[in-house]
Inverse folding.
């Protein structure tokens, strides 16, 4: 048993850290405040092959492992959780789904530009009435000769306003139940698909989120991902991969909270001594570091299982559940350590606390993760 | 085609150095990195390769830990590596390091056209190895370089001096030590990092090289510097100045 990354993975982590210090840290507060997508950062990430790490070289990727991608998401999230999340959705869900379920032609046409970072991908599943309850979706897809016609309204689509390729889910045969949903690759600019309302969020504000509206949106039959009826299985596979990414995002947030807490508590003097000398503070930091370590290893373990070709759905859920709840719990503590200063705009911990909350919600709430984990145990 | 040898030192990342008990320096949890100044030397070699074609060999001397450093160096655009690593090479003085480099270059990396160094290492900053290697190889040495242009059989360099810029020309082969202002080193991409393990590396051990001379300098002890801060508020008056002078004298400052 070896608890260590490869030398290459360690170097890749260091390079991402240096990238973040140079290009992300200086703008992280500004893009949060203005809810601005950092296009310039993603262009640089694309130029250095960060946008398709686990995708084979023949499809424009770097040909490395899923774990390497997870390390990159973690390190990017440490500086900007919104950017880390954007990278996670793009690679972990959209690219992995085309890689796993796409035809050779779909991989050439859609995966390659995604892996090169020419544009972003989006995963279009959630609907106003269908969050955790995916089966309550209303979006209908009908066959018309060589085309499929999509009608429906999706919501909370991450990367919705800015993506170049969308994976969209809808019913091709509602009566077939769990075998009735299908997935489609829809490129931006397809007539009938438009971006709806943009959402203003509490955290990860630089991530762009919107409704997506489909009105007689016609896609050629070649854009069916997998087979008709595979949609739900594809969505679940996407979420399994994505959850490891959200766990990594949470680990990055948690690491940042620990960094800030150590730095602040050693320099903040009250009653004539740094507050780090107070047990009330030092124990918060001990708990934070302990949960961080546990969350990181759970996350790497889930990614390692994926790279080994073994089932990882339950471990992905465990990693996401634990890391997200730890990130929320300890970012609240990180604000507490900084007191009034931590509650004000400009303190990094204030942003970390707002960013942490979403990790308990998207790509399956903590409650949904418990359903997945217990379902696997009590089957 | 030009053959450029870029020399890099694998050093302790100072961000990880902790103060131990008393005057001790705690190096138990340190990480390592390419000496900051040497990154500029390697970057310049790679830029010359990209602009006019060259083979870049990165050369490093150190103990076994340096093998990981070699991967980092190769991910920054060098074509090949020459790793002079042995557990006997952990704590060398500048003269010994230079001797090892001269042997490695003469025997294994010739012919060569340019040898690039950072102005000094980011751990000790003795600024010795570059000039000593040049002397050992009996080639010209240009220090404090902020711009390089290579012509047919010569190198032209701008040297940044105290109050002026000196433009100098030297025949090839030549050794140059470069300043950080010469360029902004790139951050390697993922593919470059992954490709580093597949590049050829020549590994030279103690037994492959002439015996080491006795070191001219021996490190006796490293003590942690102590930074004491004090705060005194004084009025902006002649009386305030008088108190300031008195306080500074009390702290041992002599005027």
């Amino acid at each position: 048993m070896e608890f260590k990354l490869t030398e290459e993975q360690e170097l890749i982590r260091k390079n991402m850290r240096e990238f973040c210090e140079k290009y992300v840290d200086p703008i992280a507060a500004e893009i949060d405040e203005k809810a601005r997508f950092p296009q310039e950062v993603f262009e640089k990430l694309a130029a250095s092959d960060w946008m398709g790490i686990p995708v084979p070289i023949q499809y424009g990727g770097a040909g490395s492992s899923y774990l390497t991608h997870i390390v990159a998401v973690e390190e990017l999230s440490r500086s900007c959780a919104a950017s880390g999340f954007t990278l996670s959705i793009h690679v972990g869900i959209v690219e992995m789904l085309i890689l796993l379920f796409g035809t050779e032609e779909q991989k050439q046409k859609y995966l390659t530009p995604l892996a090169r970072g020419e544009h972003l991908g989006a995963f279009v599943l959630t609907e106003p009435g269908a969050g955790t309850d995916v089966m309550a979706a209303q979006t209908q897809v009908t066959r018309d000769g060589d085309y499929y016609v999509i009608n429906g309204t999706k919501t909370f689509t991450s990367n919705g306003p800015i993506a170049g390729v969308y994976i969209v889910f809808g019913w091709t045969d509602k009566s077939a139940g769990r075998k009735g949903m299908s997935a489609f690759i829809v490129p931006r600019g397809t007539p009938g698909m438009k971006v709806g309302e943009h959402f203003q969020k509490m955290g990860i504000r630089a991530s762009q989120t919107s409704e997506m509206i489909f009105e007689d949106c016609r896609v050629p039959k070649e854009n069916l991902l997998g087979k008709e009826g595979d949609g739900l299985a594809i969505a679940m596979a996407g979420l399994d991969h994505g959850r490891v990414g959200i766990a990594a995002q949470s680990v990055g947030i948690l690491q940042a909270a620990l960094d800030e807490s150590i730095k602040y508590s050693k320099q903040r003097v009250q009653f004539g001594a740094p507050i780090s000398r107070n047990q009330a503070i030092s124990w918060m930091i001990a708990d934070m570091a302990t949960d961080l370590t546990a969350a990181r290893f759970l996350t790497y373990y889930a990614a390692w299982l994926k790279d080994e070709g073994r089932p990882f759905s339950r471990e992905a859920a465990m990693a996401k559940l634990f890391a997200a709840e730890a990130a929320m719990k300890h970012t609240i503590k990180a604000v507490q350590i900084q007191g009034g200063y931590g509650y004000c705009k400009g303190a990094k911990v204030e942003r970390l606390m707002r960013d942490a909350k979403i990790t308990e919600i998207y790509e399956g709430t903590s409650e949904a993760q418990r359903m997945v984990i217990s379902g696997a145990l009590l089957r | 085609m030009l053959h450029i040898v870029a020399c890099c030192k694998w050093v302790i990342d100072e961000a990880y150095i902790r103060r131990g008990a008393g005057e001790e320096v705690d190096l138990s949890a340190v990480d390592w990195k390419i000496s900051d100044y040497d990154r500029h030397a390697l970057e310049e070699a790679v830029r010359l390769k990209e602009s006019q074609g060259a083979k870049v060999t990165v050369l490093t001397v150190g103990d076994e830990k340096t093998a990981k450093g070699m991967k980092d160096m190769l991910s920054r655009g060098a074509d090949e590596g020459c790793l002079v690593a042995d557990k006997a090479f952990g704590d060398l003085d500048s003269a010994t390091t230079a001797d090892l480099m001269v042997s490695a270059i003469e025997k294994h990396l010739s012919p060569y056209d340019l040898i690039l160094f950072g102005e000094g290492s980011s751990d000790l900053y003795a600024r010795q190895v570059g000039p000593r290697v040049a002397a050992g190889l009996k080639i010209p040495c240009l220090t404090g370089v902020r711009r390089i242009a290579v012509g047919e059989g010569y190198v032209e360099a701008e040297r940044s001096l105290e109050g002026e810029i000196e433009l100098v020309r030297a025949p090839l082969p030549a050794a140059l030590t470069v300043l950080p202002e010469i360029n902004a080193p790139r951050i390697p991409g993922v593919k470059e990092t992954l490709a580093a393990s597949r590049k050829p590396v020549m590994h030279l051990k103690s037994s492959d090289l002439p015996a080491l001379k006795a070191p001219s300098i021996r490190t006796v002890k490293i003590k942690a510097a102590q930074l004491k801060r004090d705060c005194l508020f004084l009025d902006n008056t002649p009386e305030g100045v008088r108190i300031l002078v008195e306080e500074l004298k009390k702290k041992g400052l002599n005027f």
